[in-house]
Amino acid sequence: MRATFFFDPVCPFTWRTSRWLLGVAAERDVTIHWRPISLAILNNFEIETGEDGGDNPYRPMMIAAFKAHRLVEALRVEGRDDTIGVFYTEMGARTHEAGAALSDEIVVQAAEAAGIDDPKSFMNDNGWDESVRASHQTAMTLAGPDIGSPVVHVDGAKRGLHGPIIAEVPTGAEALQLWDLIVPLMRMENFFEVKRGRG
Fold it and tell me: What is the pLDDT of residues 57-79, one digit of tens each?
Protein backbone atom coordinates (compact mmCIF):
# COMPACT_ATOMS: atom_id res chain seq x y z
CA MET A 1 0.00 0.00 0.00
CA ARG A 2 1.11 3.53 -0.67
CA ALA A 3 0.37 6.35 1.77
CA THR A 4 0.84 9.95 0.72
CA PHE A 5 1.82 12.16 3.64
CA PHE A 6 1.36 15.91 3.13
CA PHE A 7 3.48 17.76 5.68
CA ASP A 8 4.77 21.12 6.79
CA PRO A 9 8.03 20.73 8.74
CA VAL A 10 7.14 23.60 11.10
CA CYS A 11 4.21 21.75 12.68
CA PRO A 12 4.98 19.70 15.83
CA PHE A 13 1.76 17.69 15.49
CA THR A 14 2.80 16.73 11.97
CA TRP A 15 6.20 15.65 13.25
CA ARG A 16 4.65 13.25 15.76
CA THR A 17 2.26 11.85 13.17
CA SER A 18 5.14 11.26 10.76
CA ARG A 19 7.13 9.33 13.38
CA TRP A 20 4.09 7.13 13.99
CA LEU A 21 3.59 6.56 10.25
CA LEU A 22 7.22 5.61 9.74
CA GLY A 23 6.94 3.02 12.50
CA VAL A 24 3.77 1.59 11.01
CA ALA A 25 5.12 1.51 7.47
CA ALA A 26 7.64 -1.23 8.19
CA GLU A 27 5.03 -3.42 9.89
CA ARG A 28 2.21 -2.93 7.40
CA ASP A 29 4.25 -2.86 4.18
CA VAL A 30 3.40 0.78 3.50
CA THR A 31 5.40 2.92 1.09
CA ILE A 32 5.36 6.59 2.10
CA HIS A 33 5.11 9.26 -0.58
CA TRP A 34 6.04 12.71 0.83
CA ARG A 35 4.34 15.91 -0.42
CA PRO A 36 4.06 19.53 0.78
CA ILE A 37 1.16 21.19 2.49
CA SER A 38 2.10 24.75 3.34
CA LEU A 39 1.18 26.72 6.44
CA ALA A 40 2.63 29.77 4.68
CA ILE A 41 0.01 29.41 1.96
CA LEU A 42 -2.72 28.78 4.52
CA ASN A 43 -1.74 32.01 6.28
CA ASN A 44 -1.44 34.00 3.03
CA PHE A 45 2.22 34.87 3.48
CA GLU A 46 4.03 36.50 0.56
CA ILE A 47 6.96 34.12 0.18
CA GLU A 48 9.49 36.38 -1.52
CA THR A 49 9.10 39.39 0.78
CA GLY A 50 7.92 37.57 3.89
CA GLU A 51 5.13 40.12 4.30
CA ASP A 52 1.61 39.26 5.35
CA GLY A 53 0.28 42.59 6.56
CA GLY A 54 0.66 41.61 10.19
CA ASP A 55 3.12 40.68 12.92
CA ASN A 56 3.23 36.89 13.08
CA PRO A 57 6.14 35.41 15.08
CA TYR A 58 5.89 32.15 13.13
CA ARG A 59 6.33 33.83 9.75
CA PRO A 60 10.13 33.27 9.42
CA MET A 61 9.71 29.57 10.15
CA MET A 62 6.89 29.20 7.65
CA ILE A 63 8.91 30.93 4.96
CA ALA A 64 11.86 28.61 5.66
CA ALA A 65 9.46 25.68 5.43
CA PHE A 66 8.22 26.89 2.05
CA LYS A 67 11.80 26.95 0.80
CA ALA A 68 12.20 23.39 2.09
CA HIS A 69 9.05 22.48 0.15
CA ARG A 70 10.67 23.67 -3.06
CA LEU A 71 13.44 21.18 -2.43
CA VAL A 72 10.92 18.45 -1.59
CA GLU A 73 9.16 18.94 -4.91
CA ALA A 74 12.46 18.87 -6.80
CA LEU A 75 13.32 15.57 -5.13
CA ARG A 76 9.84 14.19 -5.82
CA VAL A 77 10.25 14.85 -9.54
CA GLU A 78 13.46 12.80 -9.38
CA GLY A 79 11.63 9.96 -7.61
CA ARG A 80 13.64 10.39 -4.41
CA ASP A 81 11.00 9.73 -1.76
CA ASP A 82 13.51 8.01 0.51
CA THR A 83 15.73 11.10 0.43
CA ILE A 84 12.75 13.33 1.25
CA GLY A 85 12.02 11.14 4.26
CA VAL A 86 15.60 11.45 5.50
CA PHE A 87 15.59 15.20 4.84
CA TYR A 88 12.41 15.64 6.90
CA THR A 89 13.83 13.50 9.69
CA GLU A 90 16.96 15.65 9.76
CA MET A 91 14.89 18.84 9.91
CA GLY A 92 12.76 17.45 12.73
CA ALA A 93 15.80 16.33 14.72
CA ARG A 94 17.20 19.87 14.51
CA THR A 95 13.91 21.59 15.37
CA HIS A 96 11.23 19.60 17.17
CA GLU A 97 13.67 17.32 18.98
CA ALA A 98 16.23 20.05 19.72
CA GLY A 99 13.78 22.84 20.58
CA ALA A 100 14.98 25.16 17.80
CA ALA A 101 13.01 27.21 15.30
CA LEU A 102 13.18 26.17 11.65
CA SER A 103 15.41 28.49 9.62
CA ASP A 104 17.07 28.56 6.21
CA GLU A 105 20.31 27.47 7.89
CA ILE A 106 18.67 24.43 9.47
CA VAL A 107 17.04 23.50 6.15
CA VAL A 108 20.47 23.60 4.48
CA GLN A 109 22.09 21.57 7.28
CA ALA A 110 19.34 18.95 7.10
CA ALA A 111 19.56 18.74 3.33
CA GLU A 112 23.32 18.27 3.41
CA ALA A 113 22.97 15.60 6.12
CA ALA A 114 20.50 13.83 3.81
CA GLY A 115 23.06 13.83 1.00
CA ILE A 116 21.42 16.53 -1.12
CA ASP A 117 23.85 18.52 -3.25
CA ASP A 118 23.55 22.32 -3.46
CA PRO A 119 20.21 22.61 -1.62
CA LYS A 120 20.17 26.41 -1.79
CA SER A 121 19.80 26.32 -5.57
CA PHE A 122 16.40 24.66 -5.10
CA MET A 123 15.39 26.52 -1.94
CA ASN A 124 15.81 29.89 -3.65
CA ASP A 125 14.29 28.86 -7.00
CA ASN A 126 10.73 30.20 -7.17
CA GLY A 127 10.25 28.13 -10.31
CA TRP A 128 9.15 25.35 -7.94
CA ASP A 129 6.41 27.47 -6.35
CA GLU A 130 3.69 26.35 -8.75
CA SER A 131 4.47 22.72 -7.95
CA VAL A 132 4.40 23.40 -4.18
CA ARG A 133 1.08 25.23 -4.52
CA ALA A 134 -0.36 22.39 -6.60
CA SER A 135 0.64 19.86 -3.93
CA HIS A 136 -0.89 22.05 -1.24
CA GLN A 137 -4.11 22.31 -3.22
CA THR A 138 -4.20 18.55 -3.71
CA ALA A 139 -4.03 18.09 0.08
CA MET A 140 -6.80 20.64 0.59
CA THR A 141 -8.98 18.93 -2.02
CA LEU A 142 -8.40 15.53 -0.43
CA ALA A 143 -9.16 16.53 3.17
CA GLY A 144 -10.39 20.12 3.28
CA PRO A 145 -11.71 22.66 3.78
CA ASP A 146 -10.71 23.99 7.20
CA ILE A 147 -7.75 21.69 7.72
CA GLY A 148 -4.00 22.04 8.17
CA SER A 149 -0.94 19.84 8.36
CA PRO A 150 -0.71 16.86 8.14
CA VAL A 151 -2.94 15.14 5.59
CA VAL A 152 -2.74 11.40 4.98
CA HIS A 153 -4.15 9.64 1.92
CA VAL A 154 -3.98 5.94 1.06
CA ASP A 155 -4.55 3.97 -2.12
CA GLY A 156 -8.20 3.09 -2.61
CA ALA A 157 -9.56 6.15 -0.79
CA LYS A 158 -11.27 8.97 -2.66
CA ARG A 159 -10.43 11.39 0.15
CA GLY A 160 -7.71 11.80 2.75
CA LEU A 161 -7.79 12.78 6.41
CA HIS A 162 -6.27 15.62 8.39
CA GLY A 163 -4.23 13.93 11.11
CA PRO A 164 -4.28 11.79 13.08
CA ILE A 165 -3.30 14.39 15.66
CA ILE A 166 -1.64 12.61 18.56
CA ALA A 167 -0.29 13.78 21.91
CA GLU A 168 2.53 11.23 21.96
CA VAL A 169 3.93 8.91 19.30
CA PRO A 170 2.30 5.50 19.79
CA THR A 171 4.42 2.39 19.40
CA GLY A 172 3.93 -1.35 19.12
CA ALA A 173 0.39 -2.71 19.09
CA GLU A 174 -1.16 0.69 19.77
CA ALA A 175 0.52 2.22 16.70
CA LEU A 176 -0.68 -0.59 14.46
CA GLN A 177 -4.19 -0.48 15.93
CA LEU A 178 -4.43 3.24 15.13
CA TRP A 179 -3.41 2.56 11.53
CA ASP A 180 -5.84 -0.34 11.20
CA LEU A 181 -8.68 1.89 12.39
CA ILE A 182 -7.84 4.90 10.27
CA VAL A 183 -7.46 3.18 6.90
CA PRO A 184 -11.05 1.83 6.78
CA LEU A 185 -12.38 5.23 7.89
CA MET A 186 -10.42 6.93 5.13
CA ARG A 187 -11.89 4.58 2.53
CA MET A 188 -15.44 5.08 3.83
CA GLU A 189 -16.91 7.79 1.61
CA ASN A 190 -19.67 8.65 4.10
CA PHE A 191 -17.20 9.41 6.92
CA PHE A 192 -15.76 12.88 7.38
CA GLU A 193 -14.89 13.69 11.01
CA VAL A 194 -14.20 12.42 14.52
CA LYS A 195 -12.90 14.90 17.07
CA ARG A 196 -12.39 15.46 20.79
CA GLY A 197 -10.93 18.35 22.77
CA ARG A 198 -7.32 18.48 23.88
CA GLY A 199 -7.47 17.99 27.61
Answer: 788 898 999 999 999 999 999 99
Dihedral of CA atoms 18, 162, 34, 61 in degrees, nearest 10, equals -80
We report the CATH number of the domain holding residue 53 as: 3.40.30.10
Structural domain includes residue 195: no
Q: How many domains does the chain have?
A: 1
98-116 pLDDT tens trace:
999 999 999 999 999 999 9
The side-by-side arrangement of strands in the sheet containing 161-162 is 31-36, 2-7, 151-154, 161-162
Q: At 61, which helix (H) or strand (E)?
A: helix 59-77
pTM, to two decimals = 0.94
